[in-house]
Structure formats: structure tokens, C-alpha cells
Amino acid sequence: MSIRTVITFGTFDVFHVGHVRVLKRAAALGDRLVVGVSGDALNVAKKGRPPVFSQEERLEIVSSLAVVDGVFLEESLEQKRDYILEHEADVLVMGDDWAGKFDWVSDVCEVVYLARTPSVSTTGLIEHIAGLP
Ligand code: C2G
Fold first, then answer.
1. Structural domain span for residue 99
2. What is the pLDDT of residues 93-127, one digit of tens each?
3. Would strands 91-95 and 110-114 be described as parallel, antiparallel, or unpaired?
4. What pTM was estimated for this model as a whole?
């Protein structure tokens, strides 16, 4: 029987329980989980600000999780198909904030969107911490 590889992508900045849950659920969809961690430059381009933690720190955090088998740097959203082929992924998993956005890779793998964990986000945490006395 062949190994089913799952791939997912994210910034995973100020790592929180929503991140853990999506990675655990992604891992449960196959035998091996590979994670593309968005680079600092991609975040500046996409969100207009650099992440709190550097890409090296975020790669180290994500790669240390028991459910994660491998990590790599995601440098561009448009290269998704190349990353999927390079890592021989059978399934792309994304949170449903991206619902429909990556259906264009469904010619090379299955695409699954998982419901986000409510009430927790990196932006919310940054705002909370910034507002503390
Ligand atoms: N997530 C979640 N629940 C939350 C917050 C995040 O399930 N409360 C999920 C997101 O849906 C995503 C993953 O955690 O699947 C990582 O989230 P982000 O770090 O916000 O990722 P993002 O910046 O959207 O990067 O190629 C796409 C990008 O790399 C995605």
C-alpha cells in the first residue's frame, strides 16, 4: 500500500491552539504531513507586515511537532502546484478561511478545507498583548 502524504501551508506566527488543531486534523488525513511555512517576505507582501517570529523560528517550532514529518519554506502562493508535486502530496489541506482559493490545484491532488478553530487568531493575540498594562 502506498503512503498518503498530506501537505498544508501557513504562517504559524505566535503559535496557538488553532494551529495545533489544524495540523493534527491534517495529519489524521494521511500517513505523513509536510508543512510549507510562509516566508517573511511573503507575509510582508501579503499582509503588509513581517511576522512577530522570523521564518527560521517558525520553521523550528512547526518542525518540532510530533504530527509534522517535514517542513519547507513557502516563498510564493502561486507555486503551490510545484510544492505539491515536489513533495509528492496526495492531499492539500487548508483552513476554511481559504475555502475555494486553491481549487486550481485539484488536478494534481485532493483539496480539503477544514473549519477554523473559533475565537483564536494571531492578530487577536497581538492586539490582546499590546493592550495589556
Ligand atoms: N487556523 C485555524 N484556526 C484558527 C487560526 C488558524 O484552523 N483559529 C489555521 C488556518 O486556517 C491555516 C493555519 O491555521 O490553515 C495557519 O494559519 P495562518 O498562520 O494564519 O496561515 P496564513 O497566514 O493564512 O497562511 O499558502 C497559504 C498561506 O501560507 C496561509
1. 5-29+41-67+83-130
2. 999 999 999 999 999 999 999 999 999 999 999 99
3. parallel
4. 0.96
